[in-house]
């Protein structure tokens, strides 16, 4: 029987709320997008622009793990910290209908020129726009905009509040369209689909690759590795290792992800025992294996896997919640089973 394991590592993603001092400005930037990719999604409601701005570096297929994520332009301030934590390739899809596209290009330009060097080196950018509200375009391409961008790195590009076309026009956020676009353009075998506000623990890529290497001679199984996400109080730094996380859980500066809204949606199996399991900081091991994900039908795991796993259902939106829920039906049609690191 072909099996999928869902596992969860000994150090985890954490959610860090960030507050910014913002002032109101308007966007008058008008640029044209590149030609759309051939794939049109969700019954032509959206148009995808893949690899609008590619990373300067690339990783070989089996030598890294790609973090795939998504955002609107008002969450892109998380990119440098996420990139610095991840230390590997990122595939980032941004929703930018209408004039939001110009704001996104402005922020990408700033981040590549003025922020952490890893943004330019490791982040590949994709854009999703609406078919009925395409990017406003007087003729300049993304490549031209980036080449001509000449603002000061002391400018307020990231701290200012631009007019948000999506919010003003009450447009549904196509979260799974974005997730799938970012996933499909990952260049490594393994990837982790996550949210831009979830910061990983330190050195997770080399620790994970060592784990895979140790297990390479085992019988082939369909296997993914689940991580336990947490939320950290806004005035706290995200922990780098599990020992720091356990301490923060003890003093109340960290809690389980969405603990007050849907704790069961993100709890990995046997989480109480997992908290007391403290391996060496430089290792990553499988803690337990969940053979039947139906034991928790609400579970929406964040995991390291491959593109062999099912894509997310694009008819579901962020506003509708449970946007990863139907993916938890894998075992019904693919003989998948779940495990935990």
UniProtKB/TrEMBL annotation:
Stretch list, region Disordered: 1-41
Organism: Ixodes scapularis
Protein name: N-acetyllactosaminide beta-1,3-N-acetylglucosaminyltransferase, putative
Enzyme Commission number, as recorded: 2.4.1.149
Enzyme class: transferase
Statement: the UniProt record of this protein carries the keyword Transcription regulation: no
Keywords per UniProt: Glycosyltransferase, Transferase
A molecular function GO annotation: N-acetyllactosaminide beta-1,3-N-acetylglucosaminyltransferase activity
């Amino acid at each position: 029987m072909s099996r999928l394991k869902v596992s969860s590592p000994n150090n985890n993603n954490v959610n860090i709320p960030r507050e910014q001092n913002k002032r109101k400005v308007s966007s008058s930037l008008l640029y044209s997008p590149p030609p759309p990719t051939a794939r049109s999604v969700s019954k032509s409601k959206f148009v995808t622009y893949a690899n609008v701005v590619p990373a300067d570096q690339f990783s070989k297929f089996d030598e890294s793990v790609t973090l795939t994520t998504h955002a609107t332009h008002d969450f892109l301030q998380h990119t440098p910290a996420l990139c610095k934590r991840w230390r590997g390739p990122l595939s980032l899809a941004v929703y930018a209908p209408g004039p939001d596209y110009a704001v996104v290009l402005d922020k990408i330009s700033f981040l590549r020129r003025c922020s952490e060097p890893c943004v330019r080196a490791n982040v590949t950018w994709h854009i999703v726009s609406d078919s009925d509200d395409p990017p406003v375009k007087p003729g300049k391409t993304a490549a031209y905009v980036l080449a001509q961008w000449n603002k000061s790195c002391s400018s307020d590009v990231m701290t200012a509040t631009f007019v948000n076309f999506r919010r003003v026009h009450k447009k549904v956020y196509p979260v799974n369209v974005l997730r799938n676009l970012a996933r499909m353009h990952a260049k490594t075998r393994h990837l982790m689909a996550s949210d831009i506000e979830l910061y990983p623990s330190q050195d997770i890529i080399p620790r994970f690759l060592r784990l895979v290497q140790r297990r390479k001679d085992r019988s082939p199984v369909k296997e993914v590795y689940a991580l336990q996400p947490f939320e950290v109080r806004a005035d706290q730094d995200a922990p780098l290792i599990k020992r720091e996380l356990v301490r923060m859980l003890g003093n109340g500066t960290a809690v389980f992800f969405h603990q007050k809204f849907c704790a069961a949606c993100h709890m990995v199996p046997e989480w109480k025992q997992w908290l007391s399991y403290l391996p060496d900081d430089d290792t990553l091991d499988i803690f337990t294996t969940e053979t039947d994900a139906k034991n928790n039908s609400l579970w929406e795991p964040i995991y390291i896997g491959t593109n062999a796993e099912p894509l997310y259902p694009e008819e579901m939106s962020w506003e509708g919640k449970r946007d990863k829920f139907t993916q938890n039906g894998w075992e019904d049609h693919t003989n998948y089973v779940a495990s935990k690191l």
